[in-house]
Amino acid sequence: MRFDEAYSGKVFILSRQNHEKADVILYGMPMDWTVSFRPGSRFGPNRIREASIGLEEYSPYLDRHLEEVNYFDAGDIPLPFGNAERSLEMIKAYVRKILAKGKFPLGLGGEHLVSWPILEAMFEKYPDLAVIHIDAHADLRIEYEGEELSHSTPIRKVCEKFGAENVYSFGIRSGMREEFQYAKESGMYMAKFEVVEPLRKVLPTLLHRPIYVTIDIDVLDPAYAPGTGTAEAGGITSKELLEAIHLIAKSGVSIVGADLVEVAPVYDPTEKTAIAASKFIREILLGWVK
């Protein structure tokens, strides 16, 4: 599927009808083939779109309206169920096409492994890319129960292939002892438990670099986002994640792409997780796209 093909499903609120004039391509990656606890994030992208219908189109935080941003919701990549390797290949090829058109890729997951092929494509275009990773989990495992293609491994893959010094993780509160040891020794940056204040200190050092941001919804405490596959107590609030998004928006850094992953709506009958995720996407569109 190309991102310029007709899409008849639900789209994010105020999505444009013409991909050629769009600055942003919004796309879904309905994959949860490698999750280690609870599946269901493959239904996340469409639920985020559905929840967006309840959003106001104006952001009082940024004093901007969605009419001011040209974005095109291309729908979901038709990933082959259960085939992780082929799915990752398709995601990378898809993002390469978006980048070749000079557009901003904004992905909806799906499990966190989907960020790995995106980042491979991003590093091809931006060799000096910095990665901001906001998550409850370190995602620094080499493998999980013998499987190297796992949602617990994408940040380790980035560190090993593109350099740990290019990775900045925030909000981390879960992982193996070996993962935290690796973070200390590898040269990556890791802020445990908190997001906003460490981010405030790091952003000025990244002013002259292209940046990709990957956000796992489970960085939020389960009180704010119970609809995720691996919920982790002790997280930040929705207000704090909004503050982080706005801090990035107002810092002057150059964001060249982003994703938000791990929304699993089946575990949240209140829909607060999808509603929060759709608001975060609105603020990303209004704040990060120049």
From TrEMBL:
The lineage of its organism: Bacteria, Bacillati, Bacillota, Bacilli, Bacillales. The keyword Transcription regulation does not apply. This is Agmatinase. Keywords: Hydrolase, Manganese, Metal-binding, Polyamine biosynthesis, Putrescine biosynthesis, Spermidine biosynthesis. Catalyzes the formation of putrescine from agmatine. Its EC number is 3.5.3.11. InterPro entries: Agmatinase-rel, Ureohydrolase, Ureohydrolase_dom_sf, Ureohydrolase_Mn_BS. Belongs to the arginase family. Agmatinase subfamily. Binds 2 manganese ions per subunit. One of its GO terms (biological process) is putrescine biosynthetic process from arginine, via agmatine. It catalyses: agmatine + H2O = urea + putrescine. Its cofactor is Mn(2+). It comes from Gracilibacillus dipsosauri. Mn(2+) binds at residues 112, 135, 137, 139, 216, 218. Pathway: Amine and polyamine biosynthesis; putrescine biosynthesis via agmatine pathway; putrescine from agmatine: step 1/1. Gene3D superfamilies: Ureohydrolase domain.
